[in-house]
Design brief:
alpha+beta; Rossmann fold; 5-stranded antiparallel β-sheet; 19 strands; 41% helix; 18% strand
């Protein structure tokens, strides 16, 4: 009778039932629900999995292999990437252990080592940037379009709470998206990152590994009190006591994500010529201030934020604490008022009823890079630059500058506006100006279409935090 009573209480007690669900292993019939929605119908294109060797990423690797085999997929088409941050003596051995596990499951594997000097402060943020930069470089070199990461429901809850503590706006509080594009650095293409385990509690992943007899290694820094996430994990019991469970916080993040998507859709419609935003091929924007000022403040802020990020070529969300004062001033300006500001490498000014946003000249040097045949790169975070494979030799890609502008004028190609034109990429060899694709200038007809540069425009969502 006592046994039956315990069984009945386990069934009828909601708290106990939730705990049971949150700790059971992932079952085979759940795999399709985790992975299938994140991939297009048909054969799964080769992807890379970010696997550190911890419980979450190890479970991702194991479950993805199981799903592929159930679907008749080829595990060997996919690659496991492990980043050795070289911060601890054990890290190299841990990376080798992941390589062994990945090979046993049938994956390809590569270890990427963070070899550059490590900062004394902000080590976790720097390590994150290094991870995406290294993995992004690998994906680009091997023609892989997607990176799969093992972010969990616990990560989602921690992210929302950390951002809440910083006074983040809606985009920050929406937390981690199931799929997004991440830019490793300002001169790199964005990576498509998908997170199939975002709704799964960490406890279920640990139970999954235990049920399958799979071992893993945890980084001791995950428990170090010096780091914000570690302090949140240590306080989890106290937070749950007042109702801030991982499940409830992650639910709020999903609902905020839904609201964010709706706001971004409205912003999309405003960021067109019909919506009042002109995007110039020279890399600047002109906004119809009067039309945009009739929109809610949040939409105005998002439109301006997108334009600043694109014109400045920045790879990070703009800080709301710096963006909001500029937008507040802009919204108060009348049709005849003037003003100017700078933010995130962009110059913002209002004049004659229009807001002009362009790359700020002078403060940060524009890049000078060498490009050979077959090269494709993101220049200054703003323009994609390509050299046809058929072209021989190396070209120098740098800003047109005052010298180039003078050369165009000498050739009878007077251009407007000179300020923006000086900041676009041009192709040079020695001291000779060969091409300025954004204004259709080519010194020789055979270079037309073989040297190219195009303004990327608004790659990023508003993303302010």
């Amino acid at each position: 009778m006592k046994t039956e009573g315990r069984r009945l209480s386990a069934i009828t007690d909601p708290a106990h039932a939730t705990m049971t669900r949150a700790n059971r292993p992932i079952e085979p019939d759940e795999l399709a629900g985790l992975f299938a929605p994140l991939f297009q119908a048909g054969a799964v294109q080769p992807v890379a999995l970010a696997v550190s060797g911890g419980s979450d990423s190890t479970a991702l690797m194991v479950l993805f292999a199981e799903w592929l085999r159930r679907e008749g997929g080829d595990v060997g088409r996919h690659t496991v990437l492990t980043v050795d941050h070289a911060l601890r003596p054990e890290s190299a051995a841990e990376a080798r252990a992941v390589a062994v596990q990945a090979a046993a499951l049938g994956f390809r594997h590569a270890t990427l080592v963070w070899e550059s000097a490590k900062p004394r402060t902000g080590i976790q943020a720097a390590a994150r940037k290094a991870r995406y930069r290294l993995m992004g470089g690998y994906l680009h070199a091997h023609g892989i379009g997607t990176l799969v990461t093992a972010h969990t429901r616990d990560d989602q809850a921690e992210t929302l709470l950390m951002r809440l503590g910083r006074g983040s706006g809606l985009d920050g509080l929406a937390g981690i998206a199931p799929s997004t594009r991440v830019t490793p650095d300002i001169d790199a293409d964005a990576l498509l990152v998908i997170r199939p385990l975002l709704a799964v509690p960490k406890a279920r992943l640990i139970a999954t590994l235990e049920a399958r007899g799979v071992s893993w290694t945890e980084d001791p820094s995950n428990e170090a009190p010096a780091f914000e996430r570690s302090r949140l994990r240590a306080a989890s019991a106290a937070l749950e006591a007042i109702g801030l469970t991982g499940e409830s916080v992650a639910l709020s993040a999903r609902r905020l994500q839904r609201a964010r998507i709706a706001l971004e859709a409205v912003t999309d419609s405003c960021c067109t010529a019909e919506g009042g935003v002109h995007t110039d091929r020279l890399g600047f924007f002109r906004i119809d201030h009067e039309r945009l000022a009739r929109m809610p403040e949040e939409i105005y802020l998002r439109v301006v934020g997108r334009c600043i990020a694109a014109a400045g070529g920045v790879a990070e969300p703009l800080p709301l604490a710096k963006l909001e004062p500029i937008v507040e001033r802009l919204r108060r300006c009348g049709a005849r008022e003037r003003g100017a500001w700078t933010l995130a490498r962009a110059h913002i000014r209002i004049d004659g009823g229009a807001v002009h946003i362009e790359r700020e000249p002078g403060r940060t040097p524009l890049p000078v890079v060498a490009a050979a045949g077959g090269s494709r790169m993101l220049w200054d975070g703003r323009f994609t630059v390509e050299v046809a494979t058929s072209l021989k030799g190396t070209f120098e890609v740098r800003a047109l500058g005052a010298d180039g502008l003078a050369e165009l004028k000498r050739l009878g190609r007077a251009m407007r506006p000179a300020r923006a034109l000086r900041l676009v990429p041009a192709f040079w060899r020695g001291g000779d100006l060969l091409a300025v694709p954004t204004v259709d200038f080519y010194a020789r007809p055979d270079l037309d279409g073989r040297l190219s540069a195009a303004f990327v425009g608004m790659r990023y969502n508003s993303g302010g935090r």
